Hints:
By secondary structure, this protein is an alpha/beta fold. 45% of the residues lie in helices and 15% in strands. Keywords: NADP, Oxidoreductase, Rhamnose metabolism.
Amino acid sequence: MALVSNKIVCITGASRGIGRGCALEFAKHGASGLLLHYYGDAETAAEIAALKQEIESSSTATVAIVAGDIADPATSSKIVEIGVEAFGRIDVLVSNAGICPFAEFLTMPHATWERTRQVNLDGSFYVVQAVANQMKNQTPQGGSIVGISSISALVGGAMQCHYTPTKAAILSLMQSCAVALGQYSIRANAILPGTIATDINKDDLSNAAKRESMEKRTCLGRLGVPSDIAGPVVFLASDLAKYVTGASLLVDGGLFVNLQ
C-alpha cells in the first residue's frame, strides 16, 4: 500500500539510524522524492551516497542530498532551496538530526550543553521554520511535520541532563507549531522513541549487562530498531493521519509503562 504516494519528503540526519530507516520506509511506501540531509563529513558522506544508491535502485523514488551542520540556520535555508530546485515542493518534513553525548551533570563542560542544544533544539527550530514557510507558500498549501523527540522528554537520565531538555522542547515545539500552522493546512506531530539501537547509543549499549537490563525493562523484551520508528513516522506523514496534529506518539516497546 502506497501510503505516501507522490509525496516529497525531507529528512534531516538521514545518513544513519532513525533517519536512514525513515528514508527507506518512505521510499517503500511510494514517496516520489526524498530530500536527505546529512552532516557532511567523510563518514556521513559515504553513508548518504550508499543510501541514495540503495533507494534509487530498489524504488521509484528520486533522491537529492544536502550537507551541512543543522545547528547553522543557513543549512535549513539550503535544504529548502535544494528541495524546491529538485522537486518543486516539500510535502513532509522529518526533523530527526540530533546528538546525545553522554555526560555527568556536575562536571559537564558548558560547551557540551551548548552544542547539544544547538543541534537538537536550535536545529529543529530552524528547519521547521524554513520548511513550514515553504509549505505555506506552495500550491496546494500544506504538509506534515514530524519532530523526533524521545521518551527522554517524559523521564530523566543521570547522564542526559543536557539532552532530555532538548527533547522535551521538541515535543513542545510540535504542539505549538500545530497551533500556529493549522491555518495553512500544515500538521505537526511528535514521535517519542524509546531505547533504539543506533549509533547514538552504541557505546552505552556495548555494555552487555546494561543492554540486557534495558531489554528486560520493555514489555516486548527487546530494544527498538530504526524501522520500528519509521513506520509510525510514515503513518503521521500520510493521509491516514490527516486529522492528527499536535499529537505525540510514544514508540518504546512498552518501556514507559513497565514500572513493575
